[in-house]
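Researcher: Structure for this, please.
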Amino acid sequence: MTTPVSRRALLGAAALLPLATPALAFPDQPIRIVVPWNAGGATDVVTRALAAAMAPVVGQPVVVDNRPGANGAVGAQFVAQARPDGHTLFVASAETHAVNPLVYQRLAYDPMADFLPITLFADGPFALVVRSGLGTDTLDAFLALARSRPGALTYASWGIGSTSHLAAARVIQAAGVDMLHVPYTGAAPAYTALVAAQVDAMFMNAGPAESLSRDGRVKVLGIGSSTRVPLLPAVPTLREQGMQLDAANWFGLVGPARMPAAAATRIAEASAEALRSPAAQEVFRTQGILPVTGTPDQARAFITADRERWAAVIRPLNLRLD
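Model: Predicted structure, token format:
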């Protein structure tokens, strides 16, 4: 029986790792990190900051390779089939390694059997935002309005089965309200619809939420993490407002399943050291994303537990996609 591991315990165990591994003949060539999303998004931005800071630590170039498609499955399949020598890595997330196997009937990779977890490197809390003019300045007021108008309020997401969709579903389940889901084909069109008042609310990354709220285009009601985000220090968490749940994404490095354990440990150590870089920390801060570290064993335990957390949200939705 697996002992449950809390998100806060693992992501909060972000003490930087000691460099205790004996010297390895690794890496002996450039390291490629595959990002399964388009360039310019939050995942890509923080991964590039990590890669730049890791290069001098490992003594080799660390390059980012964007391979978007199929909700992350294109990039995942590429890395799963790559040579397992530790030089090709993948940016895993809640979507690729927890949600996808729960909602897709046919998935081209197995998130546990095909990959070796290496380390978490980022926690991306979501912000619950509402359109300007909705007239609700607090989470309680927003939920009260939803209860008074069952099915009338709408919330956007960047796709059916996305973490943005499921984060909202988690709050809706916990609050016992009824709202209409309006999925878009990506984050950008969803943000545009919200600002244009075509939808009423959505969960988005904290960085864009701060940017859109700066001139009053949206109102940020809550942060989906256990602690407040430095980028939005005045915004309370959902937990502070009585909702005992998190709404966030995470990013981690994984490699092909047969990757040497010693190489995985070396990458985890290098990632932790890279995250000490002031340049990397500033990029993370501006994105509203928190840098974290951990061992391969901690990463595996966290991914397993996170899949169970999302399963509890997905089961009542009876959500299955081709």
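Researcher: Any notable elements?
Model: Confidence is low (pLDDT under 50) at residues 1-5, 13-23. The CA atoms of residues 155 and 202 lie 5 Å apart.
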